[in-house]
């Protein structure tokens, strides 16, 4: 008979600072990066990195919860094949992936809209914060100019 | 060291059915590096979860791909059924298995035809697609559709096959198998074909694993992974083994797909012999609340559906990782060191499905 098995899917929640260590460990266990993706839930980004065991068919998913503006290390130095997954996360959810080995600069899918899968409310908050920061910077600059004139 | 130059390949090219672009760094007609670009046909299907409820999304999932549309629909409904703990009737599982394998046969025949066309055998291309027409006729007879079957629903299937139709399937599959044996001789024994495929685009087992390759592309390099052995639908009751080759070149990829044609025909015969009587579907109430990663073996390899629901009619997230997306790093590796003239063949050997990848 065929080798049919019904393996469990394992979801392992880890901290962001544990990500690289666990990825290295799973790679050394001989697992294959099967997918990586992002989702947005309850004000946070949920990043999932799934590793498949091609002998037992078990799928182990590392789950990292990150703030929307938190910097996330790239795993492409450990697993070069992650480059397209991470570029997709960056383009779709504006995940702040750091040190991507090949950065398509949010143009993997050539979508004009910035972070199309990030909720509009989050983007509005960001725009307001950027505007406030811009106003503050402008005010500081004008104050500086006035001081210089005095 | 020769002079290096960058040659753009695609997105429009006679060998490419769909747009993909490669920046090829070449040195004396040899590829040194390849950098792919996609994004010419992105459709934003995943974002439709905001507008369509989880039942309507079955039709969206089916439209992810024009070749393995059935398998996309199946992976999606299986994900929802898994989250909602729905036990699908056995007859529906067997019917899904039959249609899934019919999809694999017509997809592999389509690919063989495109490969034949790429190395200049036009009559062989016609022969492959002529056989494929017979497969599509059977699909149309049983589902009413040739491209989009629309027979999946959450909880089962919406169409049945009676015993006469199943007997007709068996008779037609005998003829199709005989015709595949005829074209197989040219693909695997013809001298000219061998010179175009043997030793071209080598990928080792370790490289295939490290680069995350899936499907016949990975199995041709020795990876034993075939997600059907995970045991979904009726596969636990079917006797089959993954078809694996250790050779790792374009010829091995062609051979794996040809052998998988026979394997699919055998799986359908087993499924028809074992299909039980019973209901086609169960009623499903409520909304999905939870998340799941579902893996199915499509013609091009493992596809992963990530579905997350929060107890509402609209899903929180749908993410489709297609096999071509996973095989892109492997494709770039096979191109390194290859002759520029072999690029079209090498792109084809991953059986790229770009619309599916960009969904």
Give the topology.
The complex is a heterodimer of chains A (150) and B (359).
Chain A: E1 9-14, H1 19-28, E2 32-41, E3 44-52, E4 59-66, E5 71-73, H2 83-93, E6 96-98, H3 120-149
Parallel strand pairs in A: 1-4, 5-6
Antiparallel strand pairs in A: 2-3, 3-4
Chain B: E1 4-9, E2 21-27, E3 30-37, H1 57-62, H2 69-83, H3 90-118, H4 122-143, E4 152-153, E5 156-157, H5 163-189, H6 191-197, H7 205-210, H8 215-219, H9 250-274, E6 289-298, E7 301-310, E8 317-321, H10 323-335, H11 343-349, H12 354-358
Antiparallel strand pairs in B: 1-2, 2-3, 4-5, 6-7, 7-8
What's the gist of this structure?
The complex is a heterodimer of chains A (150) and B (359). Chain A has 150 residues and is α/β, with parallel strands linked by helices.
Overall morphology of chain A: elongated
- CATH-level-4 superfamily name of the largest domain in chain A: NADH:ubiquinone oxidoreductase Nqo5 subunit
Q: Which secondary-structure class do the elements of chain B indicate? A: alpha+beta
The share of residues in extended strands of chain B comes to 5-15%
Radius of gyration of chain A, Cα only, in angstroms?
20 Å
CATH C-level class of the largest domain in chain A is Alpha Beta
Low-confidence stretches of chain B: none
Domain module tally of chain A: 2
CATH architecture of chain B: Orthogonal Bundle
Major beta sheet, strand line-up of chain A:
1-4-3-2
Mean pLDDT of chain A: 84
